[in-house]
Amino acid sequence: MSVPIDIRVPACISNMIERLERAGYEAYVVGGCVRDSLMGRVPSDWDMCTSAMPDETARVFSDRKILRIGEKHGTITVLVPEEACSGNGENAGVENGVVSGGAKAALKYDKVEITTFRTEGAYSDGRHPDRVSFVRNLTDDLARRDFTINAMAYSPSAGLVDPFGGQTDIDNWRLRAVGDPGERFREDALRIMRAMRFMATLGFRADKALHDAMISEKELLTRISNERIQTELMKLLTGSAAVEVLNEYRDVLAVFIPEILPMFGYDQHSPYHNRDVWHHTLAAVDDVPGEYPELRLTMLLHDIAKPVLGILDEGGRGHFMGHQRVGAEIAEKVLRRLRFSGAEVDTITQLIRYHDAKLWADFPSVRKWLGFLGREQFDRLLIIKHADAAGKYSTSLNEVERRNEEIRGIEDAVLRNGDCITVKQLAVSGRDLQEAGLVSGAGTGIMLEKLLDMVMNDEILNYRETLMEAGKMIASEKTRCIIFSGAPECYVPSGLDAEQAVVIACDRGYAHAKEAGFRVDIVLGDFDSYDGSIEGETEVIRLPAEKDDTDTHYAVRLAIERGLTDITILGAVGARLDHELANVQTCVYAAREKALCRIVDEHHEMFSLYCASRRIPRDSWKWLSVFAIDREIGGVTLRGLKYEIENEKLYNYFPRGVSNEFVADTAEVDVANGTMLVVLSDM
Question: How far apart are CA 211 and CA 204, in angstroms?
């Protein structure tokens, strides 16, 4: 049936409808543009349908430029000059049940798709019809559509055609399927996500039949591509009712993000939280404005590791040590599975990693975070910290709101004053420091970072002369460290220079160092393998009884805490499996702390790089092997080897990797994103 009603469509669209009607065919605008117009919303696009066959449509518009790419599915695309759609339908609104106005010219319609009325065959793949059949009857065409609110058509001459009660459903904010909802979903499972999106963004509620079918047929979503799922999820997250939909259909969400299942009902046993993990998450999502779907997704995933890591102390209080880092790793897997871009993955996982970081309302802290994250990402961090607090007790939210306001004031002042927050803004360059003989090689970046830290902490001013003087002071400090491990295989290379290095010995390593004639500054361990005397003013640190490799790892942590960033461990690279695994852990830890830690023996050298580059001299090494440690490595390039590997995709777990033979004097290793273990060998 048709109902008299006035929907003001753009002039170019109404003219095309008239042309088809003058040629003897029916023509309508259809679907979402009709729905939005009836709701008083401005349509984002206008789709047309017609009783004309595709070749007949093409003949009607033979004077226009057309595209026939979708012709086999019944669609002819007519290109219309943008100005042809201008100047029509201003002041859209709804009054007395009549839709007036509509889309103004700002919508700039340059392509108009006109599709022949059609019916569809079976959907063998659960997404696309095996065949389509062209028909002359509009109702047959509308009957194949997903929901009643989308199964309406309109033309100025015929009025509203609404055979399935879509207008009534709009009036009642009800979402119903056209026909049997289960059948609609079995035809195209993405309709389940579309239903969730319409409820989240338009405020509809599913009728019982549709609701039940969404739950019972949810596993059909496994047949849908992750790219399609991602698109619908992000649209859903923009909706004002997104949180209600996520909660009501959480089991549907878990079909493609099963990692959220442990969050449901997980009690945090925390004095800071008045909700379980899932409902805290929803409250945090709801606090983020809908125009930031990427940040809403961040909050959906920010505590995803809590159920994995949660423990209760003796007093029954919950603790989630490391949930930020592990959560970022889990989120990365989810995001890559859903085919988010690399930039989106980096943005979201970085925010998850730092969502619990302490932000202080002082100039040094704000400068450091701005330099580290950049303004846009720093502002995002403030938004998600507010959202995280919104999911807790009101006292937490009040505190964060106060601090965020202070931080934003400091941020504005830092940016307004042009404060130095990056190495590039320093009044000296790495070349300046090198030409002055203050530093060389990898130490250049370390010195620049130290100078930047001093400037941001208001310890020195960002003037060339001041920075050069500070550079001289840093250069005079010891930054090298040599660690004698307690392993029996401890190897001491000939010509080892420890003059400007701090020497640390681990237990029996003290004997190794003394036998080689070295002065020892620090000796540590449980002394289960060395019970001799310790000479001079050597600092002694006694540790609980542990394995020898634990002593070595502690020595590295101690060195880094004391500002030593160039560390060499003398020991066995891979004599025993437990030593090898401990060595990997130590190298990775040092790399992430921005230190270089080498472990060397007579035939091998091992170290790790984290988001860094390094040129490796050949020296006596014959082989170079690289291994991805814990995440995808971005932009790996190995040059100067027997053959070149460009953008090699390494496996994101140890010990899969690539091994190559040196043929040049140096090899260049670049790690754009992630942690890589490097092993050199002459065997």
Answer: 12
**pLDDT tens-digit map of 528-566:** 767 778 877 788 888 876 655 678 888 999 998 888 888
557 to each of 98, 117, 519, 585, how far by Cα in Å?
73, 71, 21, 12
Cα–Cα distance, 251 to 239 (Å, whole number): 19
3-state secondary structure of 620: coil
* Closest listed residue to residue 88, CA positions, set 9, 151, 3: 9
Quote the DSSP letter at residue 41.
Answer: P
Distance, first Cα to last Cα, the chain:
85
Q: Using CA atoms, how far apart are residues 433 and 426, in angstroms rounded to an integer?
A: 12
- The owner of tokens 């065949």 is 131
Residue 666 has φ and ψ, to the nearest 5°, of: -140, 160
Q: The tokens of 142 are what? A: 């509308």
Sheet holding 675-681, edge to edge: 539-542, 522-525, 501-506, 480-484, 566-570, 596-600, 604-610, 675-681, 623-628, 657-661
Rounded CA separation 345/348 (Å): 5
Give tens-digit pLDDT for 400-450.
999 999 999 999 999 999 999 999 999 999 999 999 988 877 678 888 988
Q: How many CB atoms lie within 10 A of CB 683?
A: 8
Helical axes 363-373 vs 394-417, angle rounded to 10°? 80
Nearest-angstrom CA–CA distance, 637 and 648: 7
